[in-house]
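Dear all,

This email documents one entry for the complex benchmark we are building for the journal club exercise. For each entry we list the sequence lines for every component of the assembly. Then comes the predicted three-dimensional structure of the complex as a token string, followed by one or two observations. Please use this as the template for your own entries, and keep the labels exactly as they appear.
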Amino acid sequence: MRAPVLVLIAILAGVGPIQAKKQPVPSPKLPAMSQGVVQAKEVSLVRVNVTGQPFDYFRPWQKKAPFTKRALGAVLPHGHVLVTADLVSNQNYVELERAESGEKTAANVVVIDYEANLALLEPTDRKFLDGLQPLELALDTVVGDRLAAWQLESTGTLVVTEGLVTTVGVTMYPAEVSEFLTYRLSIPMQYRDNSYTVPLVKGQKLAALLLRFDPRTQVLDAIPAPIIAHFLKDAESQKYQGFPSLGISFFPTRDPQLRNYAGETGKAGGVYITSVEPGLPAAKAGMKTGDIITAIGDHEIDENGNYVDSLYGKIEFSNLLGAKAYVGDSVPLQVQREGKPLTLNVKLEHRATEDYVVPPYNLDQPPSYYVLGGLIFQELSRQYLKEWGANWQKDAPQDFVYLDRFQSELFPEGHQRVVILSQVLPANSTIGYDDFSYLVVKKVNGKEVKSVGDLAEAVKTPVNGFHVIETLDDPKQLEIDATEAAADAEALQKNYGLPALQRLP
Amino acid sequence: MHRLRFLVCALALFLAAEADAQPNGQIQSSLVRITSTEVEPDYRAPWNSGSIGRGVGAGFVIDGQRILTNAHVVSNSRYLTVEREGDPNKYSATVLFVAHDCDLALIQVSAPNFWKGMKPLNFGGIPSLESVVSAYGYPIGGERMSVTTGIVSRVDFNLYTHSAIDQHLAIQISAQINPGNSGGPVLQNGKVVGVAFQGYSGDIAQGVAYMIPTPVIRRFLKDIEDGHYDRYVDLGMTYFKLQNPAQRHYLGLKEDDRGVLVGTVIEAGPCGKVLQTGDVLLAIDGHPIASDAFVEYEGERVQMPEVVERKFKGDKVRLDLLRNQQPMNVEITLGSVWPYFMQGHSYDVRPRYVVFGGLLFQPMSLDLLEAYRISDLRVRHFFDFFVSEQIYLQHPEVIILTNVLPDPINSYLMSYRSGIVDQINGRKIGTLQDLARAFEQPADRYVVNMVGDGPPLVLDAKQVEEARERIKRRYNVLSEQNLDEQPPARPAVAAQSNP
């Protein structure tokens, strides 16, 4: 999780000639810019001020303290402004600000893709972006190109830092769901307070957006224009679909013993399929564990899982599905099964975060919970685990981390949530239970609970006046008095400041 | 199960002062200084004998020409010598019995000269809080006896860190104890009230030292009367306090503050087929169990397991319980719960392993995970939940591919490290023995499936055979496997005779 960062409000600054045209009477507060440093129409940037307020998964009835982020947005055609999803997730208020004039307007998030870390904003005042030349995309960046990072001084002056593209490859994006094409640059950039979103430009065209930057090594990873183009094309459709996924895990076939075992006798190449997630596109197309994918469309896959891209050369085959294919496309996969060739036509789908048993992210959506007596029930999610901080994989309860990591093995049937008893607020009905926390709930009042909704339904029918909660691990069972639990409700709300005792999905 | 990990120093004390100043008498004629040369097994090169080290501890003479000390003083020892105050000779000694689960050992010296003038010490009871005790030994290795005094600070159950899994009664004292005090007696009014055995390193806590109290010592001495140490017995289940009125009501309990709830019953334990999750235990051997899991026992309020602690393998314990609100009673024949052992340290055993095709397979254990610092989430899960999720039923031993000795036949197999072996050529692998047998079966190739969604590991049998000598030579693998059974109750050193 990104720590809340309070950013100093940069001082507004104006840019000479254009501003003068637009605003014949410049505000006396705005210092005059030195002539000719940069033309505002070249800049095509607006400041984006965001006040975000993430949900508190340890106290799911409330939000954490608000904090403000400042960044730059790239002005695109159709009156849109492009930023990273990081910047605007869990936002309460988004504001655009003209760099040269300090003029502000509220904005809405039109489309957001947390996995590809991209979002489109739209000013409420449609004329707000007038006079700013929209950026076009430069799709042809390759290793060895120089890209310019665009940042703004507090005065509004454009600061340009050049960097060299050293690698084009596929990396995991911050949402930790999918890998996407990434440019890696070596760049001596200063990481400014307003650098949440930094556009990288090639010849006045947008080549990439900053994804992450390590100021110590001066290595910058960027979301490349082909991913942005995919996002924008998808955003034009009626309903945003997202990037497709196959639902497989694979392993290289470098080992001749493994190739031989899989029945492959011909030339080396292809990847060995180690698992196929039920219900996802590859499984629907009939793919099986042990198959070897040798080609996707016209692209042959080598034994390391790379294909030869016309622009980049060898690159991981997931790029064929990430940047180049869309949900709904039918993609022919060449497969070797027990030595025999086979073609499987996979109809691509997007796997939404809601389709996981333990959702990988929950942003802009309040967590569901249910308070029964002082027992607090929640659904297990990675967002919840991330409350343990950057080292959550080590610090969070290890059985929960295990459930998250191996969810597809542990819940092959899918279509459920893991309900947990996350903590106990001391109350009359929960005397003696104060030490229990982080328990996986199996049944409530004899009914299996696979969501907080199930739980809310189950508590409607207590067993002989008791709520009976069965847990996977010790203590295995807890009972509370149904009448007493109901009587506790008011005191709980008052003592612990709970605005409501439940929030269902 | 919480495994508290803290740094521990062993202690032993011995009284060196002259008789007239000594409230506990002439301790010099009972105290010995023990030097142990030990071989610490190397889990990362298990075919090697391991690293040789030397340690000093204390011990004291008890009846029957025996010397009592800590198990950790003589663990993994290959050669033992004892010295006594005022005698220039070193006498070689052998281990008679060792109890790693309560950190006690008995050693003997066969040279008759040694025993001349040596006086056995007698045991006392549990000293009262705030009473003064003296600890004797050879802290930080000195050659002359050292004495420290302190008071009894606390009497409670505590983790015995030598095994890292056993909890018994331990007495906290404020006497300074340091490495080298281990095995030394702690006396009060001329009687042994404990054996100094562990403490904290100075940066965690100071003035906190622990001794093994006499009930634990007496139990050890009784256990070995039949010539064999059987370990502590355990019920093999978890239980929970019943302090919630609604829960008590639901379970059909009276308002009498009695009863604890049974959580997990370890199938491999003594209660395995007898108790059920959800049973409510009301009394143990007729002693009522309070809802906070304490019982009145021999005039004191002690935790329920204390009743079992005093018993031996094969002894019986009677439990009164409520099952589905119906009263009943059961008799349990006590024994130890073997699945726990893997989670503790082991001593006096050589690491078990199999090398095949340059792949090193070893059964999971605390020592193994520490040696390799394995942080793999699945391995950690199998370790932590081995008992509570009854993983041992499927995997009595969890066989891990711990390392790959690089060779052309395994060039691509590095990424399989830390995998847990599930099947070989379709056969389930539950023990190291199973694995060795599976690799002995003639086959064209061996397909090893790891637990989980990983790829199979494939080894061509002919290539493995060709590579065998090459790998053995290159990595100096003296033996390709060690399949010895579980640790013998008595360590091999006990067999060494001492002229």
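Observations: Confidence is low (pLDDT under 50) at residues 1-41 of chain A. The CA atoms of residues 278 and 412 of chain A lie 7 Å apart.
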